[in-house]
Design a protein that fits this description.
By secondary structure, the chain is mostly helical. 90% of the residues lie in helices and 0% in strands. The protein contains 2 helices and no strands.
């Protein structure tokens, strides 16, 4: 009995939305870092 697997099945939409949000947060953080680097160079 894999509880995690059941959770994934039951809350797949929530789970994928969560991953989507995390992905975009990390993406924004990376863009912010690039922006900071660029500002530091100039």
């Amino acid at each position: 009995f894999n509880f995690h697997l059941v959770q994934l099945k039951v809350q797949s939409r929530k789970f994928f939305h969560f991953k989507y949000v995390i992905f975009h947060r990390e993406n924004n953080a990376m863009q912010q870092e690039k922006l900071n680097e660029w500002l530091h160079i100039t």
